[in-house]
Design a protein that fits this description.
The chain is an alpha/beta fold. It contains 12 helices and 9 strands. The strands form 2 sheets. Strands 3-2-1-4-7-5-8 form a 7-stranded mixed β-sheet, with helices on both faces. A two-stranded parallel sheet has the order 6-9.
């Protein structure tokens, strides 16, 4: 009976949490560009590149091919100490809209280990536009992307906005797991921002007003973390501009990036993501991730205990059924909006793989493993 009570103590909050996210996802209004929309705002797109020779060319070509008026676009590329062919790849693209800066030429901006934050700060200071859009060098940008991002900023009169980032590029089960996880994360991001529960953002696709960035003093106070150029800024913007933080719920505003191809690189990336959470003022998102991790551990523990006849299988059945039911609703909702329903056929195997992934990630965190972006 105690085991059943404990299982219910985890299952009910998990179900309520997912219902909460679904409710506020539906309250987040979709953003669509009207046919008579006239572009009049100049915008600076910032791309920070560290050893991105394989993708920077595709990224910049995609930005240059945007349907946004070209005379209103400025592209700033910051070379963050690249040791590969990144600089040559940028220079191959002949466009007067691209300006290349080398972070190492501006030592006064460098706050190790926060190299990307330092690069963004430099780029913002060099930007000539009030609207700043940040994206990553490994992203692919559909032609309507900038239209949708800027329209979302203007429509919501936002100081800060985050837009969807979708995982693409792989048919392996590991890639499908990342694709599905990212769809769910976009739903959670939107619901958290709309409800005010927490502010998640993605530095691969975020935008803000330059004046707002300067008002909150950029990344001052967060430079001890290598990562977090997105979530730290979102939190500071929420505090300074309540009611002016938005999620751009638009497929057109989405960018895509490749999935990690192996477990070590995926775990290292997620460890970096987890590492920045401890620097946030609000503990909400860290507590939610901890609860989800503990839920998976209890699921495994209840299964093991029932197999060894230590307890009845009822606690495991409760945890199992509630998780699969709630997850299916969330995944179906997110996949339908982003037109990625093909991932649903992987739902069953991914449930098992995801539990393994959460347990492996949790173990790596307990063992003190380090994330990526670690530099000498």
């Amino acid at each position: 009976m105690i085991a059943v009570s404990i299982a219910l103590g985890f299952a009910l909050p998990y179900l309520l949490l997912q219902a909460y996210y679904l409710f506020y996802w539906h309250k987040t209004k979709p953003v669509s560009i009207p046919s008579d929309y006239i572009h009049c705002a100049s915008v600076t797109i910032i791309v920070v590149a560290h050893n991105e020779s394989k993708s920077i060319g595709t990224c910049l070509q995609g930005i240059l091919k945007q349907t946004y008026p070209h005379h209103l676009m400025e592209i700033i590329v910051i070379n963050d100490h690249s040791t590969d062919d990144t600089i040559n790849e940028v220079n191959k693209i002949e466009s007067d809209r691209i300006t290349l800066y080398h972070l190492e030429d501006y030592p006064e901006y460098i706050k190790a280990p926060a190299y990307k934050k330092s690069a963004i700060t430099l780029a913002v200071d060099k930007a000539t536009s009030e609207y700043i859009v940040i994206t990553d060098a490994d992203c692919v940008h559909p032609s309507q992307w900038l239209n949708a991002v800027v329209f979302g900023l203007e429509k919501n009169q936002s100081a800060f906005q985050t837009s969807p980032v979708i995982i693409d590029g792989g048919n392996t089960l590991l890639a499908k797991m990342q694709e599905t996880e990212q769809l769910v994360l976009m739903l959670i991001t939107a619901a958290g921002i709309t409800s005010g529960l927490h502010d998640i953002a993605n530095g691969a696709n975020m935008a803000f007003r330059k004046s707002a960035f300067l008002n909150v003093d950029g990344y001052a106070g967060n430079e001890q973390f290598a990562s977090g150029d997105d979530m730290f800024l979102a939190e500071k913007m929420r505090k300074a501009f309540p009611g002016q933080i938005a999620f751009n719920k638009s497929i057109d505003a989405s960018v895509s990036t490749k999935a990690k191809t192996n477990w070590p690189s995926l775990i290292k990336q997620r460890l970096r993501w987890a590492g920045k959470n401890k620097g946030l003022e609000s503990p909400t998102i860290s507590r939610i991730w901890a609860f989800v991790g503990l839920y998976h551990f209890m699921l495994f523990l209840s299964l093991a205990a029932s197999l060894f006849n230590l307890i009845s299988p009822i606690p495991f059945i409760i945890l199992f059924v509630v998780k699969w039911f709630a997850d299916f609703l969330v995944i179906t909702t997110a996949a339908s909006f982003f037109q990625k329903t093909s991932v649903l056929k992987y739902f069953v195997p991914l449930q098992f793989l995801y539990s393994y992934y959460i347990l492996r990630l949790s173990l790596a965190m307990v063992m003190g493993k380090k994330g990526d972006w670690v530099r000498n």
